[in-house]
Structure formats: C-alpha cells, structure tokens
Write a structure and sequence with these properties.
Radius of gyration of chain B: 13 Å
Pfam families (chain B): Response_reg
CATH architecture of the largest domain in chain A: 2-Layer Sandwich
Number of strands of chain A: 20
Largest sheet of chain A: 5 strands, antiparallel
Low-confidence stretches of chain A: none
CATH topology of the largest domain in chain A: Heat Shock Protein 90
Strand order of the largest sheet of chain B: 2-1-3-4-5
Mean pLDDT of chain B: 91
CATH superfamily of chain B: Response regulator
Radius of gyration of chain A: 67 Å
Strand order of the largest sheet of chain A: 2-1-5-4-3
Keywords (chain B): Phosphoprotein
Strand content of chain B: 15-25%
Structural class of chain B: alpha/beta
Shape of chain B: globular
Strand content of chain A: 25-35%
Number of domains of chain A: 5
CATH architecture of chain B: 3-Layer(aba) Sandwich
Low-confidence stretches of chain B: none
Number of domains of chain B: 1
Structural class of chain A: alpha+beta
Order of helices and strands of chain B: EHEHEHEHEH
Largest interface: A-B, 22 and 23 residues
Protein name (chain B): Response regulatory domain-containing protein
CATH superfamily of the largest domain in chain A: Histidine kinase-like ATPase, C-terminal domain
Organism (chain B): Dyadobacter endophyticus
Distance between the termini of chain A: 154 Å
InterPro entries (chain A): HATPase_C_sf, HATPase_dom, His_kinase_dom, HisK_dim/P_dom, HisK_dim/P_sf, PAC, PAS, PAS-assoc_C
Distance between the termini of chain B: 8 Å
CATH class of chain B: Alpha Beta
Oligomer: heterodimer
Number of helices of chain B: 5
CATH topology of chain B: Rossmann fold
Helix content of chain A: 40-55%
Mean pLDDT of chain A: 87
CATH class of the largest domain in chain A: Alpha Beta
Shape of chain A: rod-shaped
Chain lengths: 627, 133
C-alpha cells in the first residue's frame, strides 16, 4: 500500500487546516470540516480567524501567527463558532511550515474541539470554588490546610476570627505559631503531625495562642490528606474556640464548689460521700456534730466505724452498700456510734452515685440524729400510755359508779315497793282497828292487832336484810389466801342445826386447795347456797354435793342438790333481790339470799348462774378468778 | 249499766279481801276468781273455766309469777283479756314499765287497803274506756 501525504491528510482524525504564508486557508481535511461545519471550498482563501469566535480580530490573529513563527509551536484555547453558530471550546495549535531552503511557506493548524473536557474542568472548578467559598465563610471554625511539612496553605474567616491572623499574614507560615512555647519545647506540633499521618487523624483540647499572645481553649482536629496514589499531600486542621464552654464549665465548677460548701456547712444532717468500697471521701459539719469526728479523723476510713460491734460482726455495713448498689438506695433507722462511743438513734439514707457514663462512682450517705425525737416520742408514748391508763381507770370508776347508780335505783324501787307494803299494812290495820272501836266490834281487834304486829315484824326483817345486802357492796373486800376446805367447812358449821334437822348429806370434793378472797363474804356465799339446798326439798333427805376444780385458770365451784329444782324461766329471776318464787307458808324466805350470793361473786370478779334439769335438783355454778 | 267479768291477782290475803269486798260492793264487777299469784291464775285459765274474765287486775310484786309475768304471758295466750296492773308504788317508771309490757293501764293502790272505793270507781272508768261501757 502506498502511503502518500495527501491520503494521510484526508484520513487524519484530527482537524487540520493548511494556511499560506499570509495566514489564509488553502485547504482543510474532513475531520476539520466535521468540527467547524464548513467544507474546505467554503473557507478557501479566507483568513483563519473567519472561523473564530465570530468577531474578526486580525491583530490578535497576526500576533498568534507571529508567536507560532517565533516559537515553532503556539497553542491557544478559546471559544469558536461553528457554521451553525453554536459555540465550542477549541484548542488551536499553530505550527509554521518551511520549505527545504528554510523559507516560510505557510502554517499547519491543528484544531480540537475540547468542549466536553473543558466543561468537566469548569464543573470541577465551580464545585471546588463552592467548597472554597463555604470553608472560607465559616466563622465558628478555623479550617485550613497544611502542607506535609506543616505550613499553612489555606485560610478562612474562622481562622482570622479565632487565631487573629489575616490570610496574608499566615499563609506559608508554619502552624507551630499557634502553640505555647512550652508545647514547642516538647515538639508537640511535629508529634501531632506524625500521629495524624500515622493514624489518619488527631484530636485534642488544649490551650492555643492567638496573634496578640492571648490564650484560648481550643478543640483541634488534625486530619491527614492523601491523594489517589496514597501519598501524603498535607493536613486539614479544624479548630474551635471552646473558651466559652470552658467558662460554662468554670461556672459549673463554681456552682459545684458552692454546693459543696453548702453541704459542708449543713449542721443538722450528716452528709458525706463514700467511694465504691465504702471509704469516706468527704465530710460535712453535720456529720462532725452528729458523730463527733473531724474530717481529718474519718477521711479514708471505712464507714463501718459508726456501727456497733454486733452490726460489724453481722456484716451489716457491707450489706447496706450492697442493697444501695442493687436497688439504688438503702434506708433505715438504727443505733450508731459517736466518736466517744455513745449511741445515737440514726435515720440514714445511702444512695448509690453514678457518673455520667452510668458507672458506680460511690455512695452518698445522709445521717440524721433522731435520738431526741425518739426520746420525746417515747415520752409522748409514755404519757399517752399514762393517760390511757387513767382513762381506763376512769372508765372502770365510771362503770362502778353506773353500777352503784343502778343499785341506788333498785334501792328506790325496793323502798317504794317492798318496804312501803308492810308500812301500808300496819297503817291499814290501825285504821281498821279504829273502825272496829267506832263500831264497838272489840272482838275483831285482836286479829287486826296480830296482823299489824306481823307486818311490823316483816318490815323489821326487810330493813335488816336490805342493810345486810347493801353492806356487802359497801365494805371493802378483804382479800386473803383461804383454804377452800375451811371456807366450806365454816359455812357448813353455821348451818349445823338445819343440817341436823333435815338429816342432809353434804359431800365436799374440792380439787382446789386455795382461793383468794374475803373470808366472811365467801362463807356467806356457800352458806346461802347450802341453806337453799336444804330448804327447797319435797320432804326427801337433802343430798348436797360441793365440787371444785381448776378451769382455764379460774376456779369453778358447783353446788348441786336433789331438791325441787328451778323452772327454766326462773333461772335468772331468782338472783333478783326480794324475788320469791314461793309463798312464805310454803318455803320461808326473804328473797335476799341469792341476791347476796350474786353480789359476793360479782365483787370477787366472778360469775354465778343456776342450772336445773327437771326432777334432778338444781346446781349453782360459780367461776372465780384464781387470784 | 254494764258489769265487767273480773279476775283479781294479789298475794296478800288481807289486801285481796278488802279489794274484792269493794269490787262486790260497787255492783259493777262480777269476780270470777281471786288468785295469790300468776301461777294460780294461769293454772285456772288453762283449766278452761266456764267463763273467761274480760279484765284481770294484778298486783306486781308477788312470789312466783308476778304481775309483769302475767302481763307478758296473757299478751300471747289470752290477748282478749285486758290486764290492769296495780301496786303500792306510785313511781312513774313502774307505770311506764307496765304499759310498755302490754298492760292496759296502771292504778296505784290506795294508801290503806280499807279505802278501795275510789280505786274501784276509777278502775270502772278505765274499764269502760277500754272495753266500752
């Protein structure tokens, strides 16, 4: 295949124009036509600038050609316009062409449409510019670039604002100007760059120097920058001024200090801190007052020194911390020890204290001395007990008064009924006798006189019995230890005549040797019961049994007879005073005996009741307290 | 003039004697029976007498079944019989106690038992009010 220059010219993918020595177009290849839209014939003999950017500029064109001639090659970039008036970014490369003798014969022009490439460059530039502007406008952060050696390459508003340097002052300077002289001696800047390059980044907070020499508290992030070939090309450095935050922290510290001094000065509460092991790490005035230890005495000691020995042996202090740790809090009241060994009644609260990362950092313990309060509570309790006792005594007295009152009412009723009756009878017969005398019926007088005398006698007996009955409740009880056998024996002795007359058998089975009470009254009690047993019979020989035994801490007596018994509706009535179930011509009596029995038993704080089964006599039951 | 069938319950024989004398003398009452206490009265009533009393006049204090027992018992066993209570007591509480228990009324006995005339007159008035005369 024959390779000639014309063929190459035609086939070349690059756009080629051939110009004569004056710069007019002689021809162009198809690739050039494809770029410009003009056929070679259309532009023949025209100056090359005719296919330029639309504005003929022969002066600039002449200059470009001269430059090409001088430098043998001259490249320009710029806008050009196609035949259809669309713009494109073109790279134009001029080369002068010489003949064998070295005379200029024309120019060869290489035209490239680098529109796409240019556009990418533009976009990139635009984006980089945006970032640059953004970074430069940030005022709160100082953001700048260092070269691999640590010299400042870029600067932003934040840098000016924070460090005090303007861009022109700082560019090219080494970043160690921001450091304290002490840090420089330590070669800190160098070390930091090294750490950043090795680990990618380095952050710290620390003091930095401003342009004027004043200090600020800086938060610094140094980031190593690598290019796509992984070569270190520099560092970015972002710096924040945290002096303000530091001020806040200082305020916080001051507030903490105030709080601490407040706690330290509280006098009524012992407030102190323990470390996680239970060692005392702080102490306040209240703790000093309550426990008697000074801060020097206790700081560093285990808080178990406040506990009585038995608590320590039981492991109580440690247990309390365990509870506080697991539940957050431990509360109790109990005895604690002062320095001098004296006890005080303490109310304590142990609270687990956690740091910001929720780790147990120790315990707070608040102690109050409640000894005085406890004492006054106890005193109050005692006085209230005393009052309650007093109230109980009053209530008992009141009860006694009520019962006396009831007795008085009963007495009134008795006087109005039972005593009035015989008086009325006597009066009636006296009036009757008066009538008899008026009517001269002397023979009738005797009978009336006899009935009057009987009534007067009944009156006398009633008054005696009533006095006897009221005596029982009036005279003080003489409590003494009595042999049961003696009491019952004396009662039997007093009834000797009646027993002999009736031929009665009285059997005593007493399991209880002793009782406590008033001898006279208890003898009266058994005497009355036995007398009734002898009296209320159907004519058969009385069989009486007296038994006693212990029962629920009380003494139980039963007096059982084989007499006429008592019908159920009368079992309670029989104990009423002057209550009689029978006419006196049937069974003699005054209606006082069982009323006396009841009174005696009640005065001995006991109970009496009657039981009777049809045809099987009656039994009287008595329960007396043992003492 | 209407007469009332009456039973008298009084334990004191002399008292009962003068009482019934006064009732008979008035001619306003027919005395069906005289009893010493409640036991005797109820025993008689249970034996189904030919005629039942319209009125019972009962003393309060008696051995055995007393006046209160009679008021109590007749209230259920013989509700048609009007029971009147009497006693030497003129205490208000006694009268109230009787009325509460179910007595038609209460009349205090005269100061002396030979002066029952006015008692009988008063009782007749009460009986008329109670049963209609």
């Amino acid at each position: 295949m024959h390779l000639n220059s014309d063929l190459i010219f035609r086939s070349l993918a690059e756009g080629i124009f051939l110009l004569d020595e004056t710069g007019r177009i002689t021809t162009c290849n198809p690739a050039a036509s494809a770029i410009t839209g003009y056929d070679a014939t259309e532009i023949e003999a025209k100056p090359f600038y005719a296919i330029g950017e639309g504005q003929d500029d022969p002066i600039k064109y002449r200059y470009e050609l001269d430059q090409a001639l001088k430098k043998k090659k001259f490249v320009v970039e710029g806008w050009k316009m196609r035949k259809d008036h669309t713009r494109y970014w073109a790279e134009t490369s001029y080369s002068p062409v010489f003949d064998e003798s070295g005379h200029l014969t024309g120019y060869c022009v290489l035209l490239r449409d680098i529109n796409e490439q240019k556009k990418r460059e533009f976009d990139l530039l635009e984006s980089e510019e945006r970032y640059r502007l953004m970074v430069e406008a940030i005022r709160d952060y100082s953001i700048f670039m260092l070269d691999p050696d640590g010299n400042v390459m870029t600067w932003n508003d934040g840098g000016t604002f924070i460090h005090g340097y303007s861009e022109s002052e700082i560019l090219g300077k080494h970043f160690s100007v921001f450091y304290l002289s002490a840090d420089l001696i330590d070669e800190k800047p160098k070390k930091k760059l090294q750490i950043a390059s090795e680990s990618g980044s380095y952050r710290e907070e620390g003091w930095r120097v401003k342009k004027g020499g004043s200090l600020f508290w800086a938060s610094v992030v140094l980031t190593a920058l690598f290019n796509d070939r992984n070569m270190l090309i520099g560092y970015s450095k972002v710096t924040r001024d945290l002096t303000h935050r530091l001020k806040d922290e200082e305020i916080l510290r001051q507030s903490e200090a105030r709080y601490r001094s407040l706690v330290e000065q509280v006098g009524d509460y012992g407030i102190f801190m323990l470390d996680t092991k239970g060692r005392i790490i702080s102490w306040n005035e209240g703790a000093r007052r309550i426990k008697g230890y000074s801060a020097e005495d206790v700081i560093g000691k285990y808080f178990s020194i406040f506990y009585p020995e038995e608590d320590i042996l039981n492991g109580k202090p440690a247990w309390e911390l365990k509870v506080a740790r697991s539940t957050g809090k431990y509360e109790e009241e109990g005895w604690r020890l002062r320095k001098d060994g004296s006890r005080f009644w303490a109310s304590i609260v142990i609270t687990a204290v956690y740091d910001t990362e929720s780790r147990l950092s120790g315990f707070s313990k608040v102690t109050r001395d409640l000894t005085e309060r406890k004492m006054s509570e106890q005193a109050l309790q005692e006085s209230s007990d005393k009052y309650r006792q007093l109230a109980e005594e009053l209530s008992v007295t009141n009860g006694e008064l009520s019962s006396v009152n009831r007795e008085l009412e009963q007495f009134t009723a008795i006087v109005s009924h039972d005593l009035k009756e015989p008086v009325r009878t006597v009066r009636s017969f006296l009036h009757l006798m008066d009538q008899h005398l008026d009517q001269q019926k002397f023979d009738l007088l005797k009978a009336s006189i006899g009935k009057g005398i009987l009534a007067a006698q009944r009156m006398h007996d009633l008054i005696d019995n009533l006095l006897h009955y009221s005596q029982i409740s009036k005279i003080g009880l003489e409590r003494q230890k009595l042999k049961v056998a003696n009491v019952i024996g004396e009662a039997i002795q007093n009834l000797n005549d009646a027993i002999e007359q009736s031929g009665a058998h009285i059997r005593v089975d007493s399991d209880v040797p002793f009782i406590y009470g008033d001898r006279v009254q208890l003898v009266q009690l058994f005497q009355n019961l036995l007398a009734n047993a002898l009296k209320f019979t159907n004519g058969s020989t009385p069989e009486v049994q007296v038994k006693s035994w212990m029962e629920d801490g009380s003494v139980r007596f039963v007096v059982h007879d084989n007499g006429i018994g008592i019908s159920p509706q009368n079992l309670e009535k029989i104990f009423e005073i002057f209550r009689r179930l029978h006419f006196s011509d049937q069974y003699q009596g005054n209606g006082v005996g069982l009323a006396v029995c009841k009174k005696v038993v009640e005065r001995h704080r006991g109970k009496i009741w009657a039981e009777s089964v049809q045809g099987n006599g009656a039994s009287f039951h008595i329960v007396l307290p043992k003492i | 003039m209407r007469t009332f069938r009456l039973a008298i319950v009084e334990n004191d024989e002399d008292e009962r004697f003068f009482m019934s004398e006064a009732f008979r003398a008035s001619g306003e009452f027919e005395i069906l029976g005289e009893f010493g206490n409640g036991d005797q009265l109820t025993e008689w009533l249970h034996e189904s007498p030919r005629e039942l009393p319209e009125l019972v006049l009962s003393d309060l204090n008696m051995p055995g079944k007393n006046g209160y027992d009679i008021i109590d018992e007749l209230k259920t066993t013989y509700p048609d019989i009007a029971v009147f209570a009497t006693s030497t007591s003129s205490v208000v509480s006694t009268r109230e106690k009787c009325m509460r228990a179910g007595a038609k009324d209460f009349i205090a006995k005269p100061d002396i038992f030979i002066a029952y005339d006015s008692f009988v007159a008063e009782f007749y008035q009460l009986a008329c009010q109670c049963l209609g005369g």
